[in-house]
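Justification of computing resources. Each target in the renewal requires a structure prediction run like the one illustrated here; the chain below, 567 residues long, is used simply to show the kind of job we budget for.
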Amino acid sequence: MYDLIIENGLIYDGLGNKPFKADLAINGEKIVEIGKITAESKERLNAEGKIVTPGFVDIHTHYDGQATWDPYLRPSTYHGVTTVVMGNCGVGFSPCKPDQRDWLIGLMEGVEDIPGTALHEGIDWEWESFPEYLDALEKKPFAIDVGTQIPHGAVRAYVMGERGINHEVASKEEIEEMKTIVQEAIKAGAYGFSTSRTEKHNDVNGNLTPSITADKEELVEIAKSLGEIQQGVLQGISDFYDFDSEFDIFKTMSKESGRPISITVEQQDARPEWWIQLLDGIEEAQDQGINMYGQVPPRATGILMGLTATLNPFRFHPSYMEIADLPLEKRVEIMNTSEFREKLLKEDAVSINPLVDEIVNSYGKMFKLGEPANYEPDPKDSFEQLSESSNMTAQEIAYQAMLEKDGRALIYHPLFNYQPGDLSLVEKMLKHPYTISGLGDAGAHCGAISDASFPTTLVQHWSRDRDRGEKLPLETVIKMQTYETANLLGINDRGIIKEGYKADINIIDYEGLTLHEPEIINDLPAGGRRLVQKASGYDYTIVSGEIAFIKGEATGALNGRLIRNSQ
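Resulting C-alpha cells:
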C-alpha cells in the first residue's frame, strides 16, 4: 500500500522532456513508482486535466529573517515553490556579534527594503556563528525546505568590525579568518557564499554595503576556501561600471576555486548593451572550462508604486510629503480635493538620487498593472502615450490611477530589461545556454517589488499567454526552475519527477493559472507592511510526500526542513 497516488496527470519531469500521462505513487518522502498504478493507497488525488511538475526551487530569496518566525514563507508558497535558498547578495544575519545586530538589520533594511521594525521584533537571535544559525533554523517548523548561503557583508563585519563596515582593506590575517568562517559555514551546511558589488546596495543610513570595496585578493581567497573542500557555490551581484575589473574578479573567483558562480545579468537603459557583453564574457569563460552562469529574471525588474507602496510618482512633492504619514483613508480624502490636486500638480519634486528620480518621473514607463497582472504592457498604454490622446497630462493620469481602488491601486514601472517596450531582451537571456532563472528576491523589497511570483510568470506568461513575442515550451520553463536551479546548487535529490527522488510535487490547473495583482498587507511582526501576490491554479503543492497547500492555502502540514549541502 502506498501513502499517496496522483492519478491521470500529465507529467512534466523537470528534465525538459515531452510530457506523458501517468500515475505517480509516493511512500514517505519519496517518489516510488510512475506508470499505470493499480495498487492500494491511503490517499489518492485525481489530476485529470492537470499538469504535474516537480516543486519549484527558488535559489534567490531573502528570507533570512522571516525564516525565523514564518513557517509558510509567503509569498513564495503561493507560487508552487517547495525549496528556497536565502543569503543572497552578501546580506544576512550570521555570523553576528551581539553588538552588530542593529547594524545587520539596518543593512538588510537598506539593501532589501524589509522593515527594520519587523526584523527587530521577529528575529530571536539564538546564534552568533553561522553553524549556530543553521542549528537554530533546524529547530524551526517549515512548510517547505530552506537552504542558506553565508553572506560576505556579515562575515566582513564579524571579522573586521568597524574597519570592515567602513570599507578598509582587510589584512592577510583578517582574510584568513574570513576564509575559516566561510569554510566552517559550508562544512556545516551552507550552500554557498554570496557578495555584492553594486552601488545600489546601501544600508538604512545610505552607506554602501561593506563588500563593495573589498579587493580582489579578499574575494578570490574566500572563494578558494570553497575550492579546498570542493563544496558550495558562489553568487555575486555588480553594476559592472568598471566592466573589465569587476568581471575579472568574479571570473577569477570561479577559476581559482573550481566552484560554480552565478552573477546578475540585467539590461539597464543607461548602458543598454552591457548585458550582451556580460553574457559573451560568461560564454567565453565556459569555453575556458570556468563554471560561470548569468542569473536572469523572467520579466522586467519592475517597481510597483502607489499610495500603499514605498514610492509613488508624487512621493517627493512638498505637498504630498506633508501628508505622507497620514492614514491611507485620510490621504485619499485630501487628494480627492481639487484644491490639493491643483497645488500638488504645479509643484516640482525634491530630488533624492538619480535612480529614484528616474523611477518617479519616467511617465513613459508607467502603466496600470491591472488584474490579472500584465508584465509585458504595450508602450502605447504608458501614461505618457495615453496623455497624447487625451486632455490630461501624464501626471494627471498617474494621479488618477493612484486613487483607484480606494487608493490601493498599483502603478507598474519596468525599470530594467524593458528598453524595447517588450520582453524580447529577456527572451534572449532565458534562451542563453549559460543562464539560470533567479533574482526574484522573495521576502525582500516589501514596499516596491513583488517578484516572488517569477515561477508563475515563467509558466503562465512564457508558455501560454505571451502575445508580444515568441513563447517558450512548457517543459522548458518547468526545467528552468526545477532541475536547473537545484542542479546549480548541488541539491541533487529534487527537481525531477523520477523514482527515488524527493516527493515535492505541484498539481497545476494549467489553463486556469492566473497571476493576480499584488496587494499591500500589514502582517509582518510589529505590523510591518509588505507586497503579497497570489496566484490561482496551484491545486495542490506536495512537500516531502505531504499535501502542504491546497489552492494556495496552507493545510497545516509542516513537512519542510532546513537542508544542508552535505545531504
